[in-house]
Amino acid sequence: MELNKLLQERETDRNALQFEQRRLVQASERVKNVILVLFLSTKESEIERNARQAEHLSENIQSQTALLEDEKKNLRHLENQVRESKEKLEKVAVELNEVSRQLADAHGDTAESERNRRRNEAIDSLKRVFPDRVYGRLVDLCQPSHRRFQLAVTKV
């Protein structure tokens, strides 16, 4: 009887132990589930934050792409303006050179003709004042014997 009682107590203790072990396993499962839920909620909020950030980056990429295209258009427009301005500048420079050359020619002709006129007037007045002694310019009156002396006669 005592043996039955001891066996029964042993069986009761074993059942109680199994019950407590199941409760422990269930409690640890609940703790795992709570930890998993917390982890998942953290990950979900992180996923949402990353999704918002990705959306923001996508919008930023679109706006930057549009801005880049606008700037490329502006650059092409400015390059065209620079090219046209350079062409106009070249045309104006050519015209300026032509006008400057014509002006220099006109000024040179005027200055040279003015010099010739004064020289001729001086020779004419010398011929009037000294009719017996002045016959004209040396260059007009003589021809050098050799071509190499032409410059010397011109400079006298």
From TrEMBL:
MF term (GO), any: DNA binding
UniProt entry tagged with the keyword Ligase: no
Coiled-coil parts of chain: 3-106
Keyword terms, alphabetized: Cell cycle, Cell division, Coiled coil, Mitosis, Nucleus
Gene Ontology, cellular component aspect: cohesin complex; nucleus
A biological process term (GO) from this entry: cell division
Tree of life domain: Eukaryota
Name of the protein in question: Uncharacterized protein
Organism: Parascaris equorum (Equine roundworm)
